[in-house]
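Morning. Coffee machine broken again, so started the prediction first thing and wrote up yesterday's gels while waiting. Chain of 220 residues, entered below exactly as on the submission form.
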Amino acid sequence: MWRRTLLEQGHTLDATTLVLWIQTEQYHVDIRIPASRPSLESVEQLEDYSFEQLVCLASQQGFTGVTQVKRNVAEWLRDHDYQPFNSRRDIAEMRFENDHILIENGIDADYFERWEKVPNSDLNLSIRPCEGQDRHGTKVPARLFTSYKTFAYARPRSKPLPSADSISEAISTHHPSKEELLDWLDFEISFGEISDENQGMITHSTFPFREGDALKFNEL
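Came back before lunch.
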């Protein structure tokens, strides 16, 4: 498991976005929550947010999929992405400064990222396919990752996003109803701390109202 400590892209420096990444031998999961996102924790479900509060969630990022590595080049093939699909590859040159610091330099896009390994996160490293439900009760394939004392749960949306560079752009262009926007944002990526072999507590999530809740692994 890795935590990003710095992004340099063009004239932009970002050391405040919460970015966590678990990488198994084949699969990855990643969550990116801007520091500017309001807490938005005081509701019980996605539908309880106002339209304006839902718009605040549109800048989040997160994805899961398969990772391909050739020598020092890694490519992340996202099969589920919080943001709209685009044709750009997520591919970079990777360099270890030491066992705990990883440097990523974009190939198709000009960026630099610095990652720090979470101590002992190579222990208890696993991924398990499971099942989740969207807000309509539709069952969708999901994934449960573990990394030492951390877990990550990724449950994608069941309805497609419109073509756009981002959800924020799609909102500006398509002017969705609240029901449509709820379907666009109905994508859970949650990271948390493992309590025991059967459950953990969510600490960071694309659903802010889930933070502080228990996730029962044996019910997935």
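The CA atoms of residues 65 and 78 lie 4 Å apart. Going to sketch it on the whiteboard this afternoon.
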